[in-house]
Write a structure and sequence with these properties.
37% of the residues lie in helices and 24% in strands. By secondary structure, it is α/β, with parallel strands linked by helices. The strands form two sheets. Strands 3-2-1-4-5-6-12 form a seven-stranded parallel sheet, with helices on both faces. It has a five-stranded mixed sheet with strand order 8-9-7-10-11. 43% of the residues are buried. The mean pLDDT is 94.
Length: 268
C-alpha cells in the first residue's frame, strides 16, 4: 500500500514515517510539510532517522495524493479538513489522528467520506480502543447509581483539553448508556456547583512534564469504585495503530470508520 504522511516534519509525522518503513505491506510515497518549512527538499527517511528512503519532503499535496493509496494525518483541525477534501477527490484512504476537532469539522469529514475511506479516532492506540470497548460495556451494565468520571493527564505542551482520547472514552460511556455525551458532559467544576447530577459524565484534565498520555475511567457507585486505565509509554503506539488502520481500510468501500471498526470491537 502506497502511503503518504502529512505534517511529516512534526514529532508524530516522523514516527509515522518510521512505522511505515517497519511495516510489511506498505511503503512511503510522499511526505508533506507546511509551506516554508526548513525541511522541504530533505529526504524523509533521513529526517525520521531511519536512513535514506529517496522520498523528498514537499509542501505540495496534490501530486502526492494522486499517486498514494492512503494518507496518514496527525495535524491540526483546519489542515485535516483541507486534506480530507483532497482525499475525497483522490478517492483514497484518509487516516485521521488529529485532535481538537469540532462539530463543524466532523460534518465536513463525513461529507468527504462519501468518496474517501475515512478512519478517524481520538486515539489510534490499539489498547485505548480496547479500553473504549470495555467502557461501553461497563456503562451499559451499570446504572446511574454509578457516577462516571474520566481523568486524563498529558505533557505540558498539549494545547487541547479534554484530550481526544478522553472524549473518545466519554463517547463510549455515553453510547453504553444510550445517551448523548453533549447533553451529559461536565467539563469544568469551580465554586459552589451543587450536588452532582445523576447521569453526568465528568472530565478532569491535568497537564505537566512529558507525560505521553494517562487515562482512567472511574465508575463510582454505592460502596465501591471500578477503575479502568491505560498508560501510553511511547508515541509509536499511535503511529503503528494508524498504519494498521490504513491497511485495514485499503479494500473497504468509501465511508466513515473508527478504530472500533478496524479492531472489530463494535459488538463489545
Amino acid at each position: 500500500m502506497r502511503l503518504a504522511v502529512v505534517g511529516a516534519g512534526g514529532r508524530m509525522g516522523r514516527m509515522l514515517i518510521k512505522a511505515i518503513a517497519e511495516t510489511e505491506g506498505c511503503r512511503l510515497v510522499g511526505a508533506i510539510a507546511r509551506e516554508g518549512s526548513e525541511l522541504l527538499g530533505h529526504d524523509a527517511g533521513l529526517m525520521a532517522g531511519i536512513g535514506l528512503l529517496e522520498v523528498d519532503v514537499t509542501d505540495d499535496p496534490l501530486p502526492i495524493f494522486a499517486q498514494a493509496d492512503g494518507v496518514l494525518d496527525f495535524t491540526t483541525p483546519s489542515a485535516t479538513v483541507a486534506f480530507a477534501a483532497l482525499a475525497a477527490q483522490a478517492r483514497i484512504v484518509h487516516v485521521i489522528g488529529t485532535t481538537g476537532l469540532q462539530d463543524d469539522d466532523f460534518t465536513k469529514l463525513e461529507a468527504a467520506a462519501r468518496h474517501a475511506r475515512v478512519v478517524q479516532s481520538g486515539n489510534m492506540s490499539l489498547g485505548v480502543n480496547l479500553l473504549a470497548g470495555l467502557v461501553r460495556k461497563v456503562a451499559a451494565t451499570l446504572g446511574d447509581d454509578y457516577d462516571i468520571e474520566i481523568l486524563e493527564m498529558h505533557h505540558r505542551m498539549k494545547v487541547d483539553a479534554p484530550s481526544g482520547t478522553a472524549l473518545l472514552l466519554g463517547e463510549a460511556a455515553a453510547q453504553g448508556r444510550k445517551v448523548s455525551l453533549k447533553d451529559h458532559s461536565v467539563r469544568v467544576r469551580d465554586g459552589h456547583t451543587g450536588a452532582r447530577r445523576p447521569g453526568d459524565i465528568g472530565f478532569a484534565a491535568l497537564r505537566g512534564g512529558t507525560v505521553v498520555g494517562d487515562h482512567t475511567v472511574m465508575f463510582a457507585g454505592p460502596g465501591e469504585c471500578i477503575e479502568i486505565s491505560h498508560r501510553a509509554e511511547d508515541r509509536s503506539i499511535f503511529a503503528r495503530g494508524a498504519v494498521r488502520a490504513a491497511l485495514w481500510a485499503f479494500d473497504k468501500k468509501p465511508g466513515y470508520y473508527t478504530m472500533a471498526d478496524v479492531l472489530g470491537l463494535n459488538g463489545l
